[in-house]
């Protein structure tokens, strides 16, 4: 399975989701490819936000080697599933879809199209965001067992 996690900047939420998913896939001996990207271009080449690095590290997950990249239409060919954090990410990714097969790959990370809040302006959101992402990734892994 090839999974791409997508948010806006690719420095806060999606690198965390990538790190958590990698961690859980390894724990479950799943040979998955996992990456992340942002719909925006402001943080191409940047390290994840220090607050995401810190919360991941507190759970023994190292995301510091990721570098920001922007979602492109070619990602529809590279990945089986594209998980978005919020509705705006969903709309931006769907806008790039070429056909129904592309659209079918796009899912909200959280069930029932709930959104992972953008923690960029609020330090206090990083811990709850981590928990939301962890629980969602656990469900994805468990559904594959
Ligand atoms: P992310 O958070 O989408 O979770 O990576 C953001 C990071 C940067 C910006 C917005 C959201 N920004 O406006 O630069």
Q: Can you describe this structure?
A:
The structure is a single chain. The chain is an alpha/beta fold. The chain has one domain (2-141): Response regulator (Rossmann fold), CATH 3.40.50. 41% of the residues lie in helices and 13% in strands. The protein has six helices and four strands, in the order βαβααβααβα. It has helices at 13-27, 50-57, 75-78, 87-96, 100-104, 126-143, and strands spanning 2-7, 33-38, 81-84, 106-108. β1 (2-7), α1 and β2 (33-38) form a beta-alpha-beta unit. α1 (13-27) packs across α6. The two termini are 13 Å apart. The model has no long low-confidence stretch (mean pLDDT 98). Residues 7-13, 38, 42, 118, 120 line the site of 4-nitrophenyl phosphate.
Layout: helices, strands, pairs:
Layout: E1 2-7, H1 13-27, E2 33-38, H2 50-57, H3 75-78, E3 81-84, H4 87-96, H5 100-104, E4 106-108, H6 126-143
Parallel strand pairs: 1-2, 1-3, 3-4
Helix pairs in contact: 1-6
Average of per-residue pLDDT values: 98
- Taking strands numbered 1, 2, ... along the chain, how are they ordered across the largest sheet? 2-1-3-4
CATH architecture: 3-Layer(aba) Sandwich
- Indicate the percent of residues in helices: 40-55%
What labels would you give this structure?
145 residues, alpha/beta, Rossmann fold, 4-stranded parallel β-sheet, 6 helices, 4 strands, 41% helix, globular, binds 4-nitrophenyl phosphate
Give a short summary of the structure.
The protein has 145 residues and is of the alpha/beta class. It has helices spanning 13-27, 50-57, 75-78, 87-96, 100-104, 126-143; strands spanning 2-7, 33-38, 81-84, 106-108.
């Amino acid at each position: 399975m090839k999974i791409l996690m997508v948010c806006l900047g690719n420095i806060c939420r999606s690198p965390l989701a990538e790190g958590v998913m990698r961690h859980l896939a390894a724990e479950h001996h799943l040979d998955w490819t996992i990456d992340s990207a942002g719909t925006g271009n402001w943080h191409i080449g940047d390290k994840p936000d220090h607050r995401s690095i810190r919360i991941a590290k507190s759970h023994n997950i190292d995301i510091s080697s990721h570098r920001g990249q922007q979602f492109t239409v070619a990602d529809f060919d590279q990945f089986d599933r594209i998980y978005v954090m919020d509705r705006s990410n969903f709309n931006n990714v769907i806008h790039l879809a070429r056909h129904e097969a592309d659209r079918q790959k796009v899912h909200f990370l959280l069930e029932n199209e709930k959104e992972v809040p953008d923690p960029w302006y609020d330090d206090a959101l990083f811990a709850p965001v981590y928990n939301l992402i962890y629980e969602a990734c656990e469900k994805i892994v468990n559904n594959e067992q």
